[in-house]
Design a protein that fits this description.
Helix content: 55-70%
Number of helices: 8
Structural class: alpha+beta
Number of strands: 6
Mean pLDDT: 84
Radius of gyration: 37 Å
Number of domains: 1
CATH class: Mainly Alpha
Length: 421
Amino acid sequence: MLQPLIYAETTIKKVYLNEAIDAALKNNIDLQAARLERNIAKNNIKTANRLQNPSFDAFYFMGASGNNEPKQLGVSENFEIAKRSARKKLAESNLKLVEKNIDYTTFDLKMDVREAYINLVATKSILFTLEQQKELQEELLDIARSRVKSHKSQDIDVMQAEIALNQMITQVNSARVSVNKALADFNKVINNPEDVTYDSMDKLFTEENNFEEMMTPPPDYNFPDFDQIVQKAIDNRFDIKIAKQEIDVAEKNMTVVARQRIPDIQISGGYAYQLGRYTDSGNFNNGAYAGASLVNIPLFYNYSPEIQNAALKLKQTELKYTSVKNRAVKDVSAAYERFLTAADNLNHYEKKIITDSEKLIETSKDSYEEGKSDITALIVMKQSYKSIIIGYSQALAEYYNSWTNFLREVNDEDFTLTENL
């Protein structure tokens, strides 16, 4: 069982991949901040649909020239023509865009967690392999010393075994550092503000692989041709949906800007009165007043630059949408090809290279103990075997990561291949 090597004073929590994803969705600070954009966008809808606040008006003429004029108290209100509804629709379209971006951010976080988890298990597996090789090298040193003691080998065998062991010790130390870094990266992705350190389960790549647990199809699966999955692969891409929504936002913004040319109506009304000493009849007179006027008439400025920029922005979003769709098929194709290659490489390791290497290293060890070969050949063989086991761990990590990369490109964590056969 491998244990994390460096921990702060925190609670250690071992999790499977699906549990790590759940923890990130619940606790990730960046995701929590992104989700607040939804509330902001909802408030922007209320802001866009607002009525103008009224104004309180008072007219009181001063001096002798104004004594005969009525005093006025009232309110005035500006009414926008065909603008509120356009602003509200734009704000609603922006809300949909925000929600799509939040969905994309959530999905991207899940993929980041998968990659960080896989990399952590991979580094643990390499460390485990190196520690095993260190034990084998210590065993070899004991064998060399025993053979020298019994005068079956020369002292140089012990020296070679000690040098090989010291080299292995440095590699183990470096591997421990790699595990610590992978552990830190894993927790950085989950980004939990509480004092919890998440760690992967200790099921290593060098043990029996559980592809279901790693949420990945097995490498011996009969994968379909790309033509059979390409349409499904791009139907749910977030970047295409976002680019399409950006067109809708740009169109509604174009409407909002264009309607700035429509004048608004100002309605005013209130109470008016004259004191008796200022009237011919000597009576107190009172009544009401009402008025209407057009305001914001586009006479000196007609918003042409804003309208032109809105049209250019719309053109930009249309070009972006076309570009995103054109790149999508190529990106998915490259990701699927990488996955198939990784599956093929992994099958070679599992079905041929690992089994043959294990037999070869045991044969070489027995041969040296029996004096049929020298220690140099055995050390070289052990180093080759170590490289093969590490290469297998890396091939398995690449297989898992290539599937994650494929899911990232199709933007669908639940993408299945069986439905397309």
